[in-house]
């Protein structure tokens, strides 16, 4: 039961963060199979050691007796990965890509060499118009 919960969490994390989503499911399957394979290899390596029965008993209680016991945790990992991938896709915000065309923001120099404002760049206000007329009257044409 502990292995099924751990595999489900592993699958959910990989399903949510791995892109593309099917890769998260595949990685979860490979990792679960790899953990079980390493456990079986470890049992085979310690088979000749003294006092091994207690450790092998605990490992088999945690991982299961045979290769058929891998089906439950693998199914939990796949279910967690698929569910997380679907929920991640459903709840994902759409990226707001702002594309600015250089022609829209290009400013052109006037006859006096100053850059002129294009329409829509700045909202004209009466205070700005009055200040511009004062500058023009002080500096002259």
Task: Walk me through this protein's architecture.
- By secondary structure, the protein is an all-alpha fold.
- Helices cover 65% and strands 0% of the residues.
- Helix 1 packs antiparallel against helix 2 (21-45).
- The termini are far apart.
Topology overview:
Layout: H1 2-17, H2 21-45, H3 53-63, H4 71-91, H5 102-105, H6 126-139
Helix pairs in contact: 1-2, 1-4, 2-4
User: Averaged pLDDT, please?
Assistant: 79
User: How does the helix and strand content classify structurally?
Assistant: mainly alpha
Global morphology: rod-shaped
Q: In sequence order, what are the helices and strands, one letter per element?
A: HHHHHH
Number of helices: 6
Q: Return Rg in Å.
A: 34 Å
> How big a fraction of the residues is strand?
under 5%
- Count of DSSP strands: 0
Distance between the termini: 87 Å
The main β sheet shows up as: none
Regions with pLDDT < 50 over 5+ consecutive residues?
A: none
Helix content: 55-70%
Concise synopsis of the structure shown:
The protein has 141 residues and is mainly α.
Notable characteristics:
65% helix; mainly alpha; 141 residues; 0% strand
């Amino acid at each position: 039961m502990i292995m099924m919960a751990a595999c489900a969490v592993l699958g959910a994390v990989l399903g949510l963060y791995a892109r593309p989503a099917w890769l998260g499911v595949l990685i979860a399957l490979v990792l679960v199979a790899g953990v079980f394979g390493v456990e079986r290899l470890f049992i085979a390596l310690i088979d000749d050691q003294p006092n091994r029965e207690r450790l092998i008993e605990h490992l088999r209680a945690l991982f299961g007796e045979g290769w058929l016991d891998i089906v439950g945790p693998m199914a939990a990992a796949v279910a967690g990965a698929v569910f997380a991938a679907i929920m991640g896709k459903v709840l994902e915000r759409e990226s707001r890509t702002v594309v600015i065309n250089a022609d829209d923001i290009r400013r052109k120099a006037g006859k006096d060499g100053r850059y002129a404002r294009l329409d829509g760049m700045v909202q004209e206000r009466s205070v700005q118009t009055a200040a511009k007329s004062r500058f023009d009257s002080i500096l002259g044409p």
